[in-house]
Amino acid sequence: MLKKVLIANRGEIAVRVIRTCRELGIATVAVYSELDREALHVRLADEAYALGGQTAADSYLNTDAILDIIERSGADAVHPGYGFFSENTDFARAITSRGVTFIGPPPEAIEVMGDKISSRLAAEAAGVEGVPGRSQTLTSAQEVIDFGNEYGWPVAIKAAYGGGGRGMKVVKSPEEAADLLESAQREALSYFGRSECYVERYLTWPRHIEMQILADTHGNTLWLGERDCSAQRRHQKLIEESPAPNFPDAVRQAMGEAAVKVSRACGYVNAGTVEFLFQDGEFFFLEMNTRLQVEHPVTELVTGLDLVEWQLRIAAGEAIPFAQSEIERRGHAIEVRINAEDPTAGKFTPSPGTITRFDTPDGPGVRLDAGYASGDTISQYYDNLVGKLIAWGPDRERARRRLLRAIDETVIEGIATTLPADIAILEHADFVLGEHSTKWVEEILDLSSITAAGAGGGVSDTGLQRRDVTAEVNGRRISVALWLPEVSPVVGTASATVAVRRGAGAQAKSAGSGDVSVPMQGTIVKVAVAVGQTIEVGETIVILEAMKMENSVLAERGGVVKEIRVAAGDSVSAGDIVAVIA
C-alpha cells in the first residue's frame, strides 16, 4: 500500500481523499494557496505546504511548485482530485517520471481520453457511436458556422481538454459563433490551462447518463453502474442520482459494456467515467472523464464501494478481487451540489464570501461531503462547490424525501447557495416522474419565485431589503420574511454576500442614470463596447469572470457609451461602476 499521498487539489475533494487515506493508515500532504492557508483540507492533512499565489494559475496549476513539495515532503504518490491537473497529461508524466505514483490512469490514457477529440476517435474505433461532430480542433468561427449550417442549429462548442460544463457554449445562430467561440476558449484556458475547443451536434431533449468504471493493472475492467446527471444549468450538474430512473435494464447492460470497450481501447487503469447522452432509446458516447467524478458518492452508496479506496489500491498495484457478476446495487441515492451561487429568479449568480453559519444535517441515510465549515471563505478565484449532500433510500421516492428532509436541516449563512433551486427541482412533478432532461432546468423549470437563503437578504428595486427571521406567534415557532428599509451594515459584521446582493440592487436602481455596475467581485475579461458607441437595452457591456464562470453585465438602458472605467484584467468589487451610458 502507498505510504504518503500528496493531494494536488483543494476544497471538498481534497477533504474527501484525506479522510479515506486516514482510514487506510496512509499519511497525507496538503498544498495550499495564500487564500487557503486556513482551509479545511489544510487543517485535516498530516502535513501542509504553501504553494504561494492566489489565483489557480499561480498556485494549484503551478507544476514546479507542486513537484518541489513532492520532493520536500517525501510523498510517494499524488492524487489529483478533479479539475486543475486531474486530466493533464504533462502533469501526470511529470509525476511518474520522478518515480512517484500518479493515482489515476497512465499518461497515455489521459492523452487519448483527456482530449475530447481523440476520445471520440477512440470510441469510434471501439465500435461505440458518438454524438455527431467535428473531430478536429476549431481554428475559426467559420468552422462552427459551416457545421451548424450542415447539421442544424443550435450546436455546442466544447473544451477539448476539459469537462464539467466548463468551456461549453451553445451557439443558436451563425451571428453568435465568433463571440461564443472566444468565450469558450477563455473559460477553457482559465480552468484547464488549454484553450482548444471543438464542435458537435446539440441534441434536442437528451438525458445525461454516465457509467462508472474500475480497471486494474491485471486486466480487469468492470462497470459499477450508471448515474443520471440530467438536472443541469449552464451545462453544469446540479443533481445526480443512481440508478437512472425510467432506464431499461437492457440499455443499462449495453451502456456498461460500451463503457468497458471504450476504457479498454485506451488502456485505461483506475477509476473513470464514460459519459453518454441518451435520447429516444439510443445512447451516444459523449466523453470519458479520466478521473474521479464530483458525483461519485451516489455510486458508493448504492454499491457499498469506496471509490477513493479502490483508486489507492489499484494505484498500489492491487487486483480487483470481485467479478462483474458480483457487483450488487441496492436502493437509490440522490446528490445535490451545494454551490456558492445565488439562484434568485434562476440567474445562478456567483456568490463568494465568508460562511458565517453552517449547520449540517444528520440522520439515517444522509451523507455530507463538504470542503468548508463555518468561518471559511469562498474565494472568487476558485470553483464555487461548497459541498455535496447525498441521501440513500431503499427506493427513489424514499431517497428523494430523505434528501428534502436533509436540505431542510441544512443552514448556510453569509453566502447564497443553490439549495433553494435544488428543492424546486426535487419537488417538481417532472423530476418525481423522471421525465426531465439536460435542458429541463433552463427551459421548463420556473425559478422566477426562488430567492436566496442565508445570504443576508436581497435588496429590491424599491429600496426594501428582505430579512428572514424566526418568530413565535401564540407559542408557535414560525419563519417569516420581512421587507424592511435598507440600512447600512454594522461595521465589521457585513458578509461578502450582502455586498454582492447590494451590487445587484445598485445596478437595477442605476438604470435611469446610465451607470452600469457589476453585481459581484471578479475580474474583467472583456470590454464589449467602446466610448461613443450606440447600444440598446440588454446589450453586453463587459464580461466578468467570477468563480471560474463568465458573466455578461448587460445595459439596463439604451443610449451612447459616455465612459468606460475598466479594462480587461481589472479586478472589481460588487457595485463598482464600470461604464456610463448617456
What do you see in this structure?
- This protein is an alpha+beta fold and 582 residues long.
- It folds into 6 domains: 4-102, Rossmann fold, CATH 3.40.50.20; 104-130 and 209-230 and 243-296 and 304-330, ATP-grasp fold, B domain (D-amino Acid Aminotransferase, Chain A, domain 1, 2-Layer Sandwich), CATH 3.30.470; 132-201, ATP-grasp fold, A domain (Dna Ligase, domain 1, 2-Layer Sandwich); 331-446, 2-Layer Sandwich (D-amino Acid Aminotransferase, Chain A, domain 1); 456-486, no CATH class; 496-581, RNA polymerase II/Efflux pump adaptor protein, barrel-sandwich hybrid domain (OB fold (Dihydrolipoamide Acetyltransferase, E2P), Beta Barrel).
- The chain is built from 16 helices and 32 strands.
- The strands form 9 sheets. An 8-stranded antiparallel β-sheet has the order 13-12-9-10-11-14-21-19, sandwiched between helices.
- Helix 4 (89-96) runs antiparallel to helix 5 and helix 7 (141-151) crosses helix 8.
- It is globular and about 70 Å long.
- Residues 456-463 and 487-511 have low confidence and may be disordered.
Briefly, what is this?
The protein is of the alpha+beta class and 582 residues long.
Task: Furnish the topology, listing elements before pairings.
Elements: E1 4-7, H1 11-23, E2 27-32, H2 40-44, E3 47-50, H3 63-73, E4 77-79, H4 89-96, E5 101-102, H5 107-113, H6 116-125, H7 141-151, E6 155-159, E7 169-171, H8 177-192, E8 197-201, E9 207-215, E10 221-233, E11 236-242, H9 249-265, E12 270-279, E13 282-289, H10 296-303, H11 307-315, E14 332-339, E15 341-342, E16 349-350, E17 353-354, E18 357-359, E19 366-370, E20 377-378, E21 385-393, H12 396-409, E22 411-413, H13 419-427, H14 429-432, H15 440-443, E23 464-473, E24 476-485, H16 496-509, E25 515-517, E26 522-527, E27 534-535, E28 540-546, E29 549-554, E30 559-564, E31 571-572, E32 577-581
Parallel strand pairs: 1-2, 1-4, 2-3, 4-5
Antiparallel strand pairs: 6-7, 6-8, 9-10, 9-12, 10-11, 11-14, 12-13, 14-21, 15-16, 17-20, 18-22, 19-21, 23-24, 25-32, 26-28, 26-31, 27-30, 28-29, 30-32
